[in-house]
Amino acid sequence: MRRKNILLLAIPVFCCLIIRPVGAKANVGAPGQITDTVITPEVLKSFEGYYKMDESYIHITATTSGLVLEQMWDNQKIPFSPKTGLEFLNDDGNFPLKFTKGADGTITQVLAFDRDLWIKTKDYKPLVIKEVQLKASELKALEGKYTMQTDHGDEAFILIRATDKGLILKQGWDNQESPFVATSDVDFYCKERQFPLKFTKDKDGNATQVLAFKRDLWKKVKE
Prior knowledge:
Elements: E1 24-28, E2 35-39, H1 41-45, E3 49-53, E4 56-62, E5 67-71, E6 77-82, E7 87-90, E8 96-101, E9 107-112, E10 116-121, H2 136-140, E11 144-149, E12 155-162, E13 167-171, E14 177-182, E15 187-190, E16 195-201, E17 207-212, E18 216-220
Antiparallel strand pairs: 1-2, 3-4, 3-10, 4-5, 5-6, 6-7, 7-8, 8-9, 9-10, 11-12, 11-18, 12-13, 13-14, 14-15, 15-16, 16-17, 17-18
């Protein structure tokens, strides 16, 4: 849950150029010294494609002025402008993208938020979720408050409650709620955000912790 949902829906502006397209400009150079470098449309096109992290995908397309990132789980889009030849930044300045090239010069991956690594792929396949129906008692055993230490040393928490259809996860830092369906007795999935949860149970069948995004481990608070 370190990836908080900050992507805002934005519509890229396309410009019709009569003679030839003018590439995007990136500000590069030593600190205090700004140099304008033109990134041509052909170079911007090289960033296009699908990128995968865990079971989630993003899609990147080029415009005449930069890039647009689309989250495939909710179709939200956000434009980016070039900062350097391989680095881009959103309009608010709080969402950096840093691309990496392979030995052959092609784009292979992108690092978002200086933390989330997305690998470029040609094998985009929409995820198919096979739901299972759990007993009310099984869902009830997963309810509770779960905590985790953040990167800054603070304690964050989430609240999980059972519903007729699955679980609802509420983020303590912004009160955002996400619905989850069961794919097994310990595995759950949020279709809207492509967000997996995997619970660990004790010998009595009660949850002790939950793993989010296959990496963020949240410990259940004992009542």
